[in-house]
Amino acid sequence: MLTLRRLGIDAYRENIAFLRRDCAVVRAADFQVLNRVEIFAVGADGRPNGRAIRATLNLVDPGAVLQASELGVSDEAFAQLGLGEGSAVGIAPASPPASADALHAKVMGRSLSEAELRLLVTDVVANRYSKMELAAFVVAAANAFSRDEVLALTRAMIDAGTRLDWSAQGNTRMIVDKHSIGGIPGNRTSMIVVPIVAAHGLTCPKTSSRAITSPAGTADTMEVLARVALDAQEMRQVVEREHGCLVWGGHVNLSPADDIFIAVERPLSIDSPEQMVASILSKKAAAGVTHLVLDLPVGPTAKLRNTEDATNLRKLFEYVADAIGLIIEVIFTDGSQPIGRGIGPVLEARDVMAVLRNEPDAPADLRDKSLLLAARMLEFDPALRGGGGMQRARQLLASGAALAAMQRIMAAQGPPPEQCAPAALTMEIKAERSGMIAGIDCLHLARIARLAGAPFVKGAGIDLLEKTGAHVQAGQPLYRLHAGLASDLGFALKYALSDNGYRVSS
Amino acid sequence: MLTLRRLGIDAYRENIAFLRRDCAVVRAADFQVLNRVEIFAVGADGRPNGRAIRATLNLVDPGAVLQASELGVSDEAFAQLGLGEGSAVGIAPASPPASADALHAKVMGRSLSEAELRLLVTDVVANRYSKMELAAFVVAAANAFSRDEVLALTRAMIDAGTRLDWSAQGNTRMIVDKHSIGGIPGNRTSMIVVPIVAAHGLTCPKTSSRAITSPAGTADTMEVLARVALDAQEMRQVVEREHGCLVWGGHVNLSPADDIFIAVERPLSIDSPEQMVASILSKKAAAGVTHLVLDLPVGPTAKLRNTEDATNLRKLFEYVADAIGLIIEVIFTDGSQPIGRGIGPVLEARDVMAVLRNEPDAPADLRDKSLLLAARMLEFDPALRGGGGMQRARQLLASGAALAAMQRIMAAQGPPPEQCAPAALTMEIKAERSGMIAGIDCLHLARIARLAGAPFVKGAGIDLLEKTGAHVQAGQPLYRLHAGLASDLGFALKYALSDNGYRVSS
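^ inputs. structure came back:
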């Protein structure tokens, strides 16, 4: 028997076990090469009590971080085992998870059945795979995944977590939502759309993600204004009272397999149509959404580069949504440059509030896009006259009804965890030559904002001073960097000076 | 500036960096999510001195294994940085390796050019990719990799390491070798073939691998009889004197990219034709081999399940070998069951010596297969009359010339690091019913031998008492497990009792 030791190492969602090379209890070399092990709790009677996890094994030298009879674990493994420090544990070679054959078949290019995908999702959610194995699956699926596999995976992912049911509040008719596939910095339309449709009286229980590789997610930006880390019960209370919410999905356990897949897809920059569809639709269906407006930005540096790709993706969304009984409306939007002016939580929240307050200098592109999306959501309402969505959306925004709805939602969710302002260290990036701004690289600006500290420093990021179509003089400021630390400002500046992301044509 | 600390953690070929969550020098959260960082040495002048590595970042809690101003690293990262403990280092977000776009293109299904594959292999050998990224590449390549990509990858892999040149010893004619694609336990023909062809006077500088997921590699088995961890210079001396050698390739740096790919392919059970060809031919060409006999075992539990697959693989080997100027002879062999009796280094070495000593009860299948392969290699010799290879091989074996050559090679390589005998704890696995042995599962027996401790305990493994075609009575022993530790015997026994791997038909 070994003694469990939490090493306080965060291996970013991976179960890692650490064993001394000269372990006094088992021979470490036995486990090293296949390097997947099972760790099990040992009860008072000296026998396994049934609680077990799988982990990747790292060997540790004598005299380093462990005693010879200790088994160290990463934070993820410790949390999953659910035992106290010093508990008695055993270790054994891990037999492959039940779905290992299916995973291997997929890697070798075979199609999987719904039963195989269900087994696989079960093992994924139980953390039985290493990140290397998960990467193998997502890459294989990005290369060959039929429509019916996407559908089967979506169904399995929905069933693998919590499914919200809104019928208890007597509203079985319609749960509306909107989603953007992302990739466009500053694109915080949800924070305007949700108050508009909630003010109209439609129910919109919006859950959002935090940024993983982008400079801000809707959850990060909303957190500048209100608490977002609500659990399912708290979220329900807000929605019952205010018709809408803007919360972080992390505490709600909707499609947990999606979060695990994303943790490997993002570092690998995998954004295949098949994975987007399974990811988004599983989350929405699990949230109890019945009517969805989907925003597909198309542009040279967006996820979708041309209309052909966008159309193929639209059809895949429609195929799966129809099969799982979700009404979907897909809209192609302009993805040629960032939306609004701010990139980063505080700067984006400022733009959102400027639109909701009808301020004269509020970013027009953010307002117009939000109205377009809100209009299409309002059209789901059978009571509204066909084609009347845009007029209704404009009216709710102009009258201040949307702003009032936003303020009620903020109050219902609670105050934000910290008060934030734009970060104090700034630096302007200037045009290298005179001419017209012909394009702004979304990926590049996202990376610069991220290096400046967004989203971890809420006030960090970029404030765009000029956008596509404007004429600029050489030396004229294009955008302003905001950072909280000199080192971050340095990282961002170095990258921005190598290429500022603006294409200026003479 | 941070202080470098070696944590003594072996992350199995992966560069891992550990940083305190509350680091006093940089904000750890900046680096966490993209989680690939660059670690660079800081010179006496306080500036980066050019030495840098890439690593995956894990965050560590205060009070755990690190001080707040320390940067911990895994053994791999420490070795690669080449700095002393306590050295001043800095950390920065890692920009993607030069070949990142190519890797991503491959993941998304595009073919890569030779230039792109060269760039990628350079980054792989410089350890610039995480295992997750490497897994993404090997899976994408397993799904779609053209013949010309295989050829280009092979060339890039050859050029990325040491290339042995045998012309200095005046032997520019012919360097012969044999290789088996593996998967058949006990298949230690190299240790018989090399002495035969060396006794004839052909030059055969054989490098082999240690087992990764199998119960024994040729290097593990040869190490029972002689030292195998020779460097390139020592290997050259042995070959110059004895015409042949049987050494471990790990110190020779032939096709180092191959070793890195294998470290992710094996745990993922990826054995695609494309990867086998690039792996084997890059190693052989780098070793200076000019004439190769390739053993492709075909059988229901072998890597190749049928003649069609074997033929496709043969053609791919021929295509690439022709293009790189390597003469290849491909032989399909019986892969329906293990070869010889022993599985595990000591037991396999016993079988090999029994064949070389012409003992009457030496395993006939091991002897016959070795003679077949040696005969084909001998036919490469222009001086030999066409069709005379088998007769010559038999003669060299029967006369004791092969045994004498083996003994000279053993003496030249030096004594083994330890004296080993079959492991003392034994247990017999018995037939559950009477009948004829219709098949033996190679994969299953390999797994049982591995659980019993092979190859780490050299004397551990399996001794086969009955093979395919034999008639057995219920209760009659089929094979004997050998283990060095009671826990290993328990792991192996549990697995063998759930399924003994023998198919007995009545």
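The mean pLDDT of chain A is 92. The longest helix of chain A spans residues 307-324.
thumbs up if we can close this ticket
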